[in-house]
Every structure is written in structure tokens, then in C-alpha cells.
Specification:
Strand content: 15-25%
Order of helices and strands: HHHHHEEEHEEHEHHHEHEHEEHEHEEHEH
Shape: elongated
Helix content: 40-55%
Oligomer: single chain
Largest sheet: 6 strands, mixed
Radius of gyration: 32 Å
Distance between the termini: 58 Å
Structural class: alpha/beta
Length: 434
């Protein structure tokens, strides 16, 4: 019966036909009973009172509709007003993120009586959102984190990169207050997470790597449930749910969560983590196992949050970090291998630059390049082109065309080939001490 109810809508033709038949049968039975009572003598009615049976028939007919009209109808969610285009992003995702945090900020100002923030609040907002100092976490004889130290500025989208088993999930669990460090200090928004109470956890949103849902709920029901855990009620909760459904692209979706795709569940998970409009959002591998469309939708949500909250984005998918993150930390075996803005990481990698070169006879050029003082490595690409690593880009760009002309070759392409984050990641992880 539950499967039938879940798969057949109340507005479907089959259900409408069944309800019509039941209504006709019910009216027919009522008419039959009333006519019989009118004709039958009182001494042939149980209890001897036809009036009592008449009132009972009418009462049973009325009680169901009266109960429904009294308590069965829920008020409609408030209609969101059109909003201007949000800065820092395009489309409904950016507007929904703006709606979420603008409404939360207005509610916070109202709760504070529009009083200006004090110096302590200003200092807290100017400090790092996340600060880890010498954090170690030991499981029996294995050190998952081994002196991890890093700082994350508030309002940034921070990429937390590392191979499987590097300690990413352990770090997020410590920041969320779900685990304690063996030693060292972990601070969130200026407060030590080890002794943090509900006031600090109310400022954090967390999406684990494998989120779990109540499959029989719909997305609005689940978000209302999550919001109620943070004390949200009434119009405030309904407005928050509407904004989050819009942000997640799930507005108007009436399917139960058990019928969601993996991408829809991940977007709902991000929305659930944002239900309290947190100042710190912890995301553990939010795009793993998603198809390209699902990844793009989740990343659009993350990008729309830039400047509105701090996003601590743990992943091993390098392209995702390059797309949405401002700063990145690469960890391996529980230690920080690098921590800097992405462009700076590329520039710092061994002081090397890379040139992409295409000529008509690559082997001839490779032979002529042997012994060049500015050359550090030569790689032949799959398309036949050359990738040259150099520590003196200016000299390489000046001497290489002259060498090609001297050899009588046709120079088809010569351009700087920017190092990818993958190059940096592989170089740091493979070269890190074990």
C-alpha cells in the first residue's frame, strides 16, 4: 500500500475516479439509512430512538471534513519577492544565496535590536574562520594527522586537497566537533572546538562524505525538520526552506528523497548544511561519484556562497578546486605539503615555467636543445608537440625561435603553458617525505 501511495499522485485520473465512486457509495448509503429511518417504526429500531440514529449518521458524515478543515490544512509558504541580480554570480543560484544570507542577516540584526556590533564582534570577524596549530590525531598506533597547521580567512572558498587517506575527513570531523585532537589546537571563528558548546556549533554547517537522509520525506519536509533542530519556526523557517530549495534547484520537486538521483541528494545535503545560514560550511568530498552535470550543479552552489560564508571544501578532484577555490592547502600523510593561493602555488613550483612548442620535425629540435643552459626537461606530448620546462622563461622565449630558424624548421606554436594544479599536486605528493 505504501508503494502504491508513493507512486500514484492524488491528482491522477485513477485516484479521482476511485474517490468519485466512494463518494457516490457513501451518499447512497446515507440516503438509504435516512429513508429507512423515516419509514421504520420506533419499536423496530435498536434503542427505540430514531432521532439518536439520525444524529449519529449525520455526525459520522460530518466529523471527517470538519477535522480536515480545522487542522488538516497547512498555510502556504510565503512567496519570495523578485530580487535584483546578486553581485559575484549569475542566475537563480546566486540570487538564492543572496536571499538566504540577506534574510539571515536581517533576522540577526532584528534579534540584536539593531545595535551596532561591539569591538569583540569586529575582532572575531576579522580573524581567521579556521585555525589549526600543530594538530595531531592518533588512532592506536596510526597518526591520521601529524602536526597539521593552517589558517583559513573568513569569507573565502578554501580548497582542502589530499590523496585518499591523507587525513581530510579526520580534520573536518575535528572542526565539526565530532572528534577531539590528540594534541594541538583547533579553533573555529576564534573559539576552541574541543570545548565548544551549542553556540559555536550553531555557526557551523557540515556535509559528510556520505550523507544520510530519511528516504520517506520530501525535500521541503527534510529541510523543515533540519531547520527545527536549530529552533527555526513559522514564517522564518518557511522563508529559509524556500530560499534553500531555490538554491539547490529543488523548488517544486515533490518526489520523496528515496527517488532522488545522487546529484539531487548532494544538492539537498548542501542545502541542509546551510539551513542555519552558517558562518563556516564544511564540505567533505561533495562532488565525488557525481556525473559532470551533478558536479557542475554542486559547484555552482559553492561558488555562489563566496563572500557570504566561509567554505572549507575537502576534495581530491583537482579541477573542482581550480574552478571555485581562492586558496588551497595540500596535505599528505597528515601534514601540510603546501598552503597558498592557487596561482602562487603554480609560480612557486620549483621556480619552473613551461613552454608548449610545435614544429614540423620535433626530434630534430629535441636533439638541438641538448645542453641548453635554460632547459630543465623536455616532454613529448601525445599530439607530437613538445613541453619544455625552464627556469629562465625570458631567455627561452628569445633563444628558441632563433634555434628553430637556424634549423630551418617551421615554428607552428610557441606559448607559455600554464602549470595546472594537478602538476603541483603530483609534484608535492610524490616528492614529499614519507
Amino acid at each position: 500500500m505504501r508503494l502504491i501511495a508513493a507512486s500514484v499522485s492524488i491528482g491522477s485520473p485513477l485516484i479521482v475516479a476511485l474517490l468519485a465512486v466512494l463518494a457516490l457509495v457513501e451518499l447512497g448509503l446515507l440516503a438509504w439509512a435516512l429513508l429507512d429511518l423515516a419509514k421504520r417504526p420506533a419499536d423496530r429500531v435498536a434503542g427505540g430512538s430514531r432521532l439518536l440514529w439520525l444524529l449519529l449518521c449525520l455526525f459520522v458524515q460530518l466529523i471527517g471534513p470538519l477535522i480536515y478543515l480545522a487542522v488538516g490544512r497547512l498555510p502556504a509558504a510565503p512567496r519570495a519577492l523578485p530580487r535584483p541580480q546578486a553581485p559575484g554570480g549569475e542566475g537563480h543560484v546566486a540570487r538564492a544565496a543572496a536571499a538566504l544570507y540577506d534574510a539571515a542577516a536581517s533576522r540577526a540584526r532584528g534579534a540584536a535590536g539593531d545595535a551596532p556590533p561591539g569591538p569583540e564582534a569586529d575582532a572575531e570577524r576579522l580573524g581567521p574562520a579556521v585555525e589549526l596549530v600543530g594538530v595531531r590525531k592518533v588512532f592506536r598506533t596510526t597518526a591520521a594527522l601529524d602536526g597539521l597547521s593552517l589558517s583559513v580567512p573568513e569569507g573565502s572558498v578554501f580548497g582542502f586537497l589530499g590523496p585518499n587517506g591523507a587525513g581530510k575527513t579526520t580534520t573536518l570531523r575535528i572542526l565539526a566537533g565530532l572528534a577531539r585532537p590528540s594534541s594541538g589546537a583547533a579553533r573555529v571563528l576564534g573559539r576552541d572546538v574541543s570545548g565548544a558548546g551549542g553556540d559555536v556549533r550553531a555557526l557551523i554547517g557540515y556535509l559528510p562524505d556520505v550523507p544520510a537522509f530519511y528516504k520517506w520525506m520530501t525535500a521541503p519536509q527534510y529541510l523543515r525538520f533540519a531547520g527545527s533542530l536549530f529552533g527555526l519556526r513559522g514564517d522564518v523557517l518557511e522563508a529559509r526552506v524556500a530560499a534553500l530549495l531555490d538554491l539547490a534547484g529543488l523548488a517544486g520537486v515533490g518526489t520523496r528523497i528515496g527517488g532522488f538521483s545522487r546529484g539531487m541528494k548532494q544538492r539537498l545535503g548542501v542545502a541542509q548544511a546551510l539551513v542555519n545560514a552558517p558562518r563556516l560550511l564544511l564540505l567533505d568530498e561533495p562532488t565525488s561519484a557525481l556525473d559532470p552535470i551533478g558536479r557542475r550543479e554542486v559547484l555552482d552552489m559553492v561558488a555562489a556562497l563566496r563572500g557570504r560564508t566561509t567554505v572549507f571544501f575537502s576534495t581530491h578532484i583537482l579541477a573542482d578546486v581550480e574552478r571555485v577555490c581562492d586558496t588551497v592547502a595540500i596535505i599528505d600523510h597528515g601534514r601540510v605539503a603546501a598552503h597558498a593561493p592557487i596561482d602562487e602555488l603554480r609560480r612557486r613550483r620549483g621556480g619552473l615555467s613551461r613552454l608548449a612548442v610545435e614544429v614540423d620535425e620535433p626530434p630534430l629540435l629535441v636533439a638541438a636543445l641538448e645542453g641548453a643552459a635554460w632547459l630543465r626537461a623536455v616532454e613529448v606530448a601525445e599530439d607530437g608537440g613538445l613541453r619544455l620546462a625552464t627556469d629562465d622563461l625570458e631567455t627561452a622565449q628569445r633563444e628558441l625561435p632563433a634555434l628553430v630558424a637556424h634549423l630551418g624548421l617551421a615554428l607552428r606554436r610557441l606559448e607559455s603553458d600554464e602549470l595546472s594544479l594537478e602538476d603541483v599536486f603530483v609534484d608535492l605528493v610524490e616528492g614529499a617525505p614519507r
